[in-house]
């Protein structure tokens, strides 16, 4: 099997064929596109998400925090606690593990999330360090926003620029090649993208604004995230390539490696659907967050409108473009 997420049909089969128990307390349960589960505890509900970091060498601790906290934020919920599992090969030093935990402690301090547990192990089962985290959030019962809530006619908004995470990973891990493509100023810009990875602020603002659906853009890029959102909501979408917010630096990096920025891992950007996109875009801007309306939710089919080709049906997402250069 190829590196990356399982293909769409295999993943769907694994999830749907292994749901023997369904508890009444679980309000939102596992499904393709649903990054969080929601458990009802009466007056409050708990929002839970888990994810590993496998595609990066640099900043793995920082990414592990934000990738997982972003999932909870995509429900319009503030994350409050995190559990950390580190699996490391035998040649790993204590200093390397300590640096990962230092990064995790530093990033969780910025967003007021407590490290409450986890597991650390040296094992021959991995050939590079893997960090997997589980994050918990809490909100008033019924308030958490699900990926499955999109409605026909909703504006589709993305925040910040796309492929921030992917660009940062490539520039750090492939510096010897990328230094011939980017200026030092552009390399510094790409390295600063790590500081834009969190979507907690836009999640909180959008949750209070009242939106139908949110989904953070991770592995598979914006097109993969749109596919997941549409499948969860049993709807389609129509988006426009020329409206996608992509930085000059990201375009240069993707051109050098012949990869599609619309299919590149994009933590730091969130998809939001709402009937009143312009108002939300303005509200986010007032809070220092740039966002862009890229299209609308439709009755059926996922369509990307390209300037050169017109309407193109978006296929099921395959592995992230990041894996094609490793």
* Helix-and-strand structural type: alpha+beta
Which strand-content bin applies to the residues?
A: 25-35%
Radius of gyration equals 19 Å
Give the name of the CATH architecture of the largest domain: Alpha-Beta Complex
Uncertain segments? none
Q: What is the overall pLDDT average?
A: 92
What percent of residues adopt helix (DSSP H or I)?
25-40%
The number of helical segments is 10
- Adjacency order of strands in the biggest sheet: 8-10-7-11-9-12-13
* SS elements, strand count: 13
Give me the CATH fold name of the largest domain: Phosphoribosyl-aminoimidazole Synthetase, Chain A, domain 2
Measured between the Cα atoms of the first and last residue, the distance is 15 Å
Q: How many domains is the backbone divided into?
A: 2
CATH secondary-structure class of the largest domain: Alpha Beta
Backbone shape: globular
SSE pattern, N- to C-terminal: HEEEHEHEEEHHHHEHEHEHEEE
InterPro entries: HypE (IPR011854), PurM-like_C_dom (IPR010918), PurM-like_C_sf (IPR036676), PurM-like_N (IPR016188), PurM-like_N_sf (IPR036921)
Protein name: AIR synthase
Family: Belongs to the HypE family.
What does this structure look like?
Helix 3 (94-111) links the parallel strand 4 and strand 5. The two termini are 15 Å apart. The protein has helices at 8-16, 60-73, 94-111, 164-173, 175-178, 184-192, 200-209, 221-233, 248-257, 277-286; strands at 26-28, 37-40, 44-53, 79-88, 114-122, 130-140, 155-159, 213-216, 236-240, 270-274, 291-298, 302-306, 310-313. The longest helix has 18 residues, at 94-111. By secondary structure, it is α+β, with helices and mostly antiparallel strands. It has ten helices and 13 strands. The protein folds into two domains: 21-140, 60s Ribosomal Protein L30, Chain: A (2-Layer Sandwich), CATH 3.30.1330.10; 147-325, PurM-like C-terminal domain (Phosphoribosyl-aminoimidazole Synthetase, Chain A, domain 2). The strands form two sheets. It has a seven-stranded mixed beta sheet with strand order 8-10-7-11-9-12-13, with helices on both faces. Strands 1-2-3-6-4-5 form a six-stranded mixed beta sheet, covered by helices on one side. The chain is 33% helix and 25% strand. Helix 2 packs parallel to helix 3 and helix 4 crosses helix 6. This is AIR synthase. InterPro entries: HypE, PurM-like_C_dom, PurM-like_C_sf, PurM-like_N, PurM-like_N_sf. Pfam families: AIRS, AIRS_C. Belongs to the HypE family. It comes from Clostridium manihotivorum.
């Amino acid at each position: 099997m190829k590196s990356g997420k399982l293909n769409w049909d295999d993943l769907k089969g694994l999830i749907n064929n292994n749901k023997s128990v369904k508890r009444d307390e679980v309000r939102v349960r596992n499904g393709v596109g649903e990054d969080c589960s929601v458990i009802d505890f009466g007056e409050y509900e708990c929002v839970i998400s888990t994810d590993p970091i496998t595609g990066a060498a640099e900043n793995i601790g920082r990414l592990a925090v934000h990738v997982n906290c972003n999932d909870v934020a995509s429900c319009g919920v503030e994350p409050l606690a995190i559990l950390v599992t580190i699996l490391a090969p035998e040649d790993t030093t204590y200093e390397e593990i300590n640096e990962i935990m230092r990064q995790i402690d530093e990033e969780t301090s910025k967003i007021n999330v407590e490290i409450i547990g986890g597991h650390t192990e040296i094992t021959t089962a991995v050939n590079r360090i893997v960090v997997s985290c589980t994050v918990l959030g809490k909100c008033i019962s019924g308030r958490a926003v699900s990926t499955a809530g999109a409605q026909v006619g909703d504006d589709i908004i993305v925040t910040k620029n796309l492929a921030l995470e992917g660009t940062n990973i490539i520039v750090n891990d492939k510096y010897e090649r990328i230094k011939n493509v980017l200026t030092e100023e552009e390399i510094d810009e790409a390295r600063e993208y790590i500081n834009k990875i969190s979507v907690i602020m836009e999640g909180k603002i959008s949750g209070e604004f009242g939106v139908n659906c949110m989904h953070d853009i991770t592995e598979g890029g914006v097109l993969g995230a749109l596919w997941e959102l549409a499948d969860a909501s049993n709807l389609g979408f129509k988006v426009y390539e020329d409206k996608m917010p992509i930085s000059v630096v990201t375009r240069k990096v993707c051109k050098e490696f012949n990869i599609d920025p619309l299919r590149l891992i994009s933590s730091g950007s969130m998809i939001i659907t709402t009937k009143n996109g312009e108002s939300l875009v303005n509200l986010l801007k007032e809070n220092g967050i740039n966002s862009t309306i890229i299209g609308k939710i439709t009755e059926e089919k996922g369509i990307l409108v390209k300037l050169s080709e017109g309407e193109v049906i978006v296929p099921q997402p395959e592995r992230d473009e990041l894996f094609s250069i490793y």
